[in-house]
Amino acid sequence: MESIKARGIITKCRDFGESNTMMTVLADNLGVISVSAYGVRSRKSKTRVRLFSCADFVLSKKGDIYRMEQMDLVDAFFPICEDITKLSLANYLSDLAKDAFSTADKDILKLLLNTMYVISYKDTDLNLAKAVYEIKIAQYMGYEPHIASCVTCGNAENIVAFDIESGVKCKNCQRLGDYPIPQGVYEALKFILQKEDSKIFSFSVSDEVKKELCKLCEKYITDKTERNYKSLDYLKKIM
Ligand SMILES: [Zn+2]
Questions:
Q1: What is the extent of the structural domain holding 20?
Q2: Mean pLDDT throughout 97-107?
Q3: Domain boundary residue among 76, 99, 130?
Q4: What angle do CA 114, 119, 124 make, to 5 degrees?
Q5: How many angstroms does the Cα of residue 133 sit away from the middle of ligand 1?
Q6: In this structure, are 98 and 155 located in the same domain?
Q7: Which residues, 6+ apart, have CB-to-CB distance to 200 below 8 Å?
Q8: How does residue 105 score in pLDDT terms, banded at 50, 70 and 90?
Q9: What is the whole-number distance in angstroms between the Cα of residue 216 and the centre of ligand 1?
Q10: Which of 152, 212, 208, 211 is nearest to 180 (CA)?
């Protein structure tokens, strides 16, 4: 049988039989796939399957199901599994990535892995990491807001508001229902949307700007995906 190589992250594990695990894997070249891993829960097994581990897999395929032949761990992101808030955040991020996989042609897995790395090993505020990921994945899904100038008149000065439907607006064009955005939020949005994946977390903002940015990014991705994620509801209860 032909062997298939893929790098992926395990987003769900379900035990079956005496020592087997069925995994959902977000794989770079294959999308969202189900992978059966035989014997991994037996004492003799050298392979440990853990939620949110990133690994290089060698797979074989029968029908729609892939079977794991080999797994080389890239990063287990241990700190995520040791903290309930981080774990819940990772759950929500991977739910978004699963949906994005079907529409986006950009590298969703890379964005997810970068964010997992940040929430595991950096002291970046978790709310801020969530917001950055939400607006960046929206961009990758084809929902990039217009931010270069006012969507109504084209003026690049005096940007003070954000219309969820379209993008930023200037002082003269803002309407009731638009989100007022402080200059710091506007600057942060520009930074996140214009930077490469690896740089998007390297900025700092005041608590006030952070609060507004987080509110806006969550509202934006929820509106665009038209999804009500249970993982987000749960996360908001504990965050
Ligand atoms: Zn305007």
A1: 4-76
A2: 81
A3: 76
A4: 105
A5: 28
A6: yes
A7: 114, 132, 136, 191, 192
A8: low
A9: 20
A10: 212
Residues 155 and 187 in one domain: yes
Taking residues 9-17, what's their average pLDDT? 95
Taking the centre of ligand 1 as the mean of its atom positions, its distance from the CA of residue 236, in whole angstroms, is 34
Structure confidence by residue, pLDDT tens digits, 148-167? 999 999 999 999 999 999 99
Q: pLDDT digit string (tens) for 60-87?
A: 998 888 999 999 999 999 999 999 999 9
* Residues 92, 72 within the same domain: no
- In order of 9, 205, 212, the CA distances from 124 in angstroms are 22, 11, 17
pLDDT at 197: 84
Mean predicted lDDT score pLDDT of the chain: 94
How far, in Å, from the CA of 183 to the mean position of ligand 1? Answer: 15
- Measured from the Cβ of residue 157, the count of other Cβ atoms closer than 10 Å reads 8
Distance CA 221, CA 215 (A): 10
pTM here is 0.94
* 3-state class (DSSP) for residue 165: coil
Same domain, yes or no: 115 and 232: yes
Distance 190 CA to ligand 1 centre (A): 17
Domain boundary among 51, 76, 101: 76
Q: How far is the CA of 156 from the centre of ligand 1 (A)?
A: 8
CA distance 60 to 127: 39
